[in-house]
Write a structure and sequence with these properties.
Distance between the termini: 41 Å
Number of helices: 13
CATH superfamily of the domain at 9-63 and 71-237 and 337-361: Metal-dependent hydrolases
Number of strands: 9
Shape: globular
Bound molecules: zinc ion
Helix content: 25-40%
Radius of gyration: 18 Å
Oligomer: single chain
Structural class: alpha/beta
Largest sheet: 6 strands, parallel
CATH class of the domain at 9-63 and 71-237 and 337-361: Alpha Beta
C-alpha cells in the first residue's frame, strides 16, 4: 500500500473559503472536510496531491450593479469583469457588508479546524506551519484579498490579527479606500492608474508594525512602488506571473521583479491560464509546461530562493493537466522531467515560502 512520498506543497493563494461561503443551504465545513466533486481544493484533494498548506484568502464579492457585466465567479476567474479596456471595475462593498462576509469566511475556516480532527490547523507562525506539516495536517494561514473589511482606525485589523490574520492585500483589483487595484487587461502594462491613498500608506505602516505580510498581487504598478518605498518587509506577490512571458496587467515586469529581489522577497507562480499564456486567453487546454516557463524566468530574475507557487485554486481557470489540488504531483513530475534537482523542487514547493514568511513575521 506504500506509495512514494509526495512532495509537500505550500501555496501562496487559494480561494476555497470563497467557494464554501457561496454555497447556500448546506454545510460548507463538511464540504471541505469530506470533499466534493466540484471545486479545486478540499481536504481529500489536498491529501491526495500533497497540498500541505498555504494562504487561505478571504475575498468579499463585489455588490451587484444594475446593467453590469457579469461579475467574475471568483477573484481571478473568467469572465473577468472588465475585459474591455476602460470599462470600470465594480464598486467595493461597504464596510458593514465586507465585515459580515469576512466574519463568515473566517468562521468557516475556524469551524473546519475544529471539526477536522487535527487534519487542518490555522497557523500563526512558521513554527506552527512546520509542526503542522510534520503532522501531515493542512497548514492554513488566514489572508484577506482586499482590505474592505478594515476600518480607518484599524480596529478590525487588531481583531483579525488576534484571530490569526497574517497576510493582507490592501486592494483586490477594484478600487477601495486604501488604493486602486489593477484591472484585468491583456495585453496591458500594470501601470493602470493611481496607487495607494494616504490611508493605504498608513495601512502599510500598521501592517509592518503588526508583522502582517503585505501582498502586492492585485496592486497596480504605482501601488506596487508605493509599498516598495514604504514597507520595511520583504516584497511579496503571492499569486502573480512574469509580464515578460504573459503581458497581462496582473503580472510583474522585470523592473518590479528586481525590486522584489532587492528586498529578499518572493513571487508565487499563479496557475491561472490567463496569467500564464502569452495571449492571455481563458483556455483550459494550456500546458503545465507554461507554469515552468514562468518559474524559470522568475528564477532568473529573483534567484532560486525567491520563487514558489500561488495556485489560485478555486479562484481561476487552471490547466486541465493539473485540474485541482489532487493533480499537484503532475507539476512535480514536469519539474523532474526538466531535470530540476530535489533541492530546487523543495525550495519551489515549500521551503521558499517558509523562508519569506519567517523573514516577514520574525
Ligand atoms: Zn487574486
Amino acid at each position: 500500500m506504500n506509495s512514494p512520498a509526495l512532495t509537500q506543497f505550500f501555496d501562496g493563494h487559494n480561494d476555497a473559503l470563497l467557494r464554501l461561503f457561496k454555497r447556500t443551504g448546506d454545510n460548507a465545513t463538511r464540504a471541505f472536510i469530506d470533499g466534493e466533486a466540484k471545486g479545486q481544493l478540499d481536504l481529500p484533494k489536498a491529501v491526495e496531491g500533497g497540498f500541505a498548506g498555504g494562504l487561505f484568502a478571504i475575498f468579499v464579492p463585489s455588490p451587484k450593479r444594475e446593467s453590469a457585466p457579469p461579475i467574475a465567479p471568483a477573484p481571478d476567474a473568467a469572465p473577468v469583469p472588465d475585459t474591455a479596456p476602460g470599462s470600470p471595475m465594480p464598486p467595493p462593498p461597504d464596510l458593514a457588508t465586507a465585515q459580515a462576509a469576512t466574519w463568515a469566511m473566517a468562521s468557516i475556516l475556524i469551524r473546519i479546524e475544529r471539526e477536522a480532527g487535527g487534519r487542518v490547523r490555522i497557523c500563526r507562525s512558521v513554527d506552527d506551519i512546520r509542526r503542522s506539516m510534520e503532522a501531515k495536517a493542512v497548514a492554513a494561514v488566514l489572508h484577506i484579498e482586499g482590505a474592505e473589511a478594515i476600518d480607518s482606525e484599524f480596529e478590525t485589523l487588531d481583531v483579525l490579527h488576534q484571530a490569526g490574520l497574517r497576510s493582507l492585500g490592501p486592494v483586490w483589483s477594484r478600487p477601495n479606500v486604501f488604493g486602486h487595484g489593477v484591472p484585468f487587461r491583456c495585453p496591458s502594462s500594470p501601470d493602470t492608474g493611481p496607487g495607494l491613498t494616504d490611508l493605504g500608506k498608513e495601512l502599510v505602516r500598521v501592517c509592518n508594525r503588526l508583522k502582517i505580510l503585505i501582498d502586492l498581487s492585485h496592486l497596480n504598478e504605482k501601488g506596487f512602488w508605493d509599498v516598495a518605498e514604504l514597507s520595511d518587509a520583504p516584497l511579496v506577490a503571492t499569486h502573480s506571473n512574469s509580464h515578460a512571458l504573459s503581458p497581462h496587467s496582473r503580472n510583474l515586469t522585470d523592473r518590479q521583479l528586481a525590486a522584489i529581489r532587492e528586498s529578499s522577497g518572493m513571487v508565487g507562480v499563479n496557475f491561472a491560464v490567463s496569467f500564464l499564456r502569452p495571449d492571455g486567453r481563458q483556455d483550459r487546454d494550456t500546458p503545465i509546461e507554461l507554469i515552468l516557463d514562468h518559474v524559470e524566468h522568475l528564477v532568473g530574475q529573483l534567484g532560486e530562493d525567491g520563487v514558489g507557487f500561488g495556485s489560485d485554486f478555486d479562484g481561476a481557470m487552471i490547466p486541465k493537466g493539473l485540474g485541482n489540488a489532487a493533480g499537484l504531483p503532475a507539476l512535480v513530475n514536469a519539474m523532474q522531467a526538466r531535470n530540476y534537482g530535489s533541492p530546487l523542487i523543495e525550495k519551489l514547493c515549500h521551503r521558499n515560502w517558509l523562508g519569506v514568511l519567517e523573514r516577514t513575521w520574525g
